[in-house]
Amino acid sequence: MRATEHPTDAILSIRDARKCFGDRVALAGFDLTLRAGEVFALLGPNGAGKTTTINLILGFLRADAGEVRICGIDAGAAPVAARAHVAYIPEQVALYPDLTGLENLRYVATLAGLHLAPDEGRRLLDEAGLAREAHGRAASTYSKGMRQKVGIAVALARRARLLLLDEPTSGLDPKASAEFSGTVRNAAARGTAVLMATHDLYRVRETADRMGVLQAGRIVEEVDPRTLDHVALERLYIERLSAGASS
Ligand code: ATP
């Protein structure tokens, strides 16, 4: 297979993506393949290109060169069709504050053209890990972690093949953060591919099968974070950034 070819079984395939803003290089030859059930954590310092990568996947930006494919669909050429396979969970999930979690889910599902069976909303919220007592409570009372769970329930309702998470654990307390790992692992076990941009090395080790260190718009190192303890993982991350900065 040539480096520019996309594997047929990839949920997400990014090949040699390049993106500049004026003379500022945001992505400089970014490659990534994600298959069903894989959880990939993208780590990098501020300005490394994480947000640009997410925007290319969502089709909000188009690469200057290279290609992004989602389930085989070119996200640059056909962003709407490609995005139909993606669920994006931003750092702060926006919900209608006066509606309950269940009502928010039903409302968004209806907007997406889905008709949930009577018990399906609750089942999806259960799967996403939202406690039953919260299903009927106004979303204005929800914590960040609870809002994320509603977002994940929406992703499950849409049967998204790719879950994109931006800084999912920042600001979560340890219990909510641990629950988040469980929710992501459950989604992966059902065959969803997950890409999370994060700074949280600790949670990466609990959640991801693969971790890529992004620096100056390229993945400069990839490891299985479960093979290292937290200290070794942090050392590897810092050493790799220092090596890249001086090369
Ligand atoms: P952070 O962790 O701070 O969010 P990031 O890894 O998400 O950073 P990006 O936001 O993708 O990084 O930015 C990558 C580079 O591209 C940075 O140098 C940034 O300044 C630049 N950049 C991103 N978007 C724009 C834009 N719209 N106009 C100009 N430069 C941009």
Describe the structure.
This protein has 247 residues and is α/β, with parallel strands linked by helices. The protein has helices at residues 50-57, 79-83, 101-111, 120-128, 132-135, 144-157, 174-189, 201-207, 230-246; strands at residues 10-21, 24-35, 39-43, 65-70, 73-74, 86-89, 162-166, 193-198, 210-215, 218-223. A hairpin with a 2-residue loop joins strand 9 and strand 10. It is globular, with a radius of gyration of 18 Å. The two termini are 29 Å apart. The mean pLDDT is 92. The structure holds adenosine-5'-triphosphate. Adenosine-5'-triphosphate is lined by residues 21, 24, 26, 44, 46-52.
Keywords:
247 residues, alpha/beta, 9 helices, globular, binds adenosine-5'-triphosphate
Short précis:
With 247 residues, the chain is α/β, with parallel strands linked by helices.
Q: Hetero groups bound?
A: adenosine-5'-triphosphate
Strand content: 25-35%
Percent of residues in helical segments? 25-40%
* Rg over CA atoms: 18 Å
Structure classification: alpha/beta
Number of strands: 10
- Helix and strand succession? EEEHEEHEHHHHEHEHEEH
Number of helices: 9
Average of the residue pLDDT scores: 92
Shape: globular
Give the distance, in angstroms, between the N- and C-terminal Cα atoms: 29 Å
Strand order of the largest sheet: 6-7-8-3-9-10
Low-confidence stretches are: none
Largest pleated sheet:
6 strands, mixed
